[in-house]
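#struct-pred
JK: can someone run the complex with biotin? inputs below
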Amino acid sequence: RQVVYYEETDSTNIRAKDAGEKGGEHGSLFVAERQVAGKGRRGRGWESPAGTSIYMTLLLRPTFLPVKAPQLTLLMAVAVVEAIRQVTGLTGGIKWPNDVVFNGKKLCGILTEMSTEIGFINYVVIGVGINVNQETFPEEIKDKATSLKLETGAGIRRGELIAAVMERFEAYYETFLKTEDLSAVRARYNRLLVNRGQEVKVLEPDNEYEARAVGINDTGELIVRTKDAEKTIYAGEVSVRG
Ligand code: BTN
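RT: done, structure tokens with the ligand placed:
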């Protein structure tokens, strides 16, 4: 695969999308030491100083329908948790749909974006930010974020972790292409799900209620149970252009 490395860039998601527009190859990986315009979900930024973190984005050109793309984010979350466990021994969890956490603090965020053309996927980019060797965090996120170094006490080789994430994601992606759903990783995902069996507050545009999270179904929706009904909640966290 093609790996493009930047000492400094705006955002690896922006680099990957740019390559997506210009015929960049399926499977290309964009990695940066530092981002000056790192992006998080819901229009937020992503602090991206040099030296401690992983900032990377994978460019894919899937042939399945756009509606399936959000599931890739969940697939990536499983790959990240398992790669972290392989490389550091630390077992993180997943906060639905796709935050990787440890003791309630965030270790990794994933931002998936896609471009579609006449109802087909032109490209998808999956951006992954992993907190690896940070010893401190800025005041605003100090209570919400943690790093592998803070949790394990050991420095971690970022290259090794990147390779482990990619290896696992690739294997899961191959299966995903066959089944076009999350059936192969659903059980793993649900074991890692920190919300499982817990009360969650469901916020709908015109409604708000408490329910118990059961787990995801094969398409990545969260199944929740209230006292009189079972419902599924769609994450759909992919920003779309095109
Ligand atoms: C989140 O809000 O949880 C998602 C954060 C995603 C951050 C990563 S870092 C690499 C890639 N490039 C970006 O600008 N964002 C993603």
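RT: quick notes.
The first helix runs from residue 12 to 21.
Residues 238-242 have pLDDT under 50 and may be disordered.
JK: thanks, will look after standup
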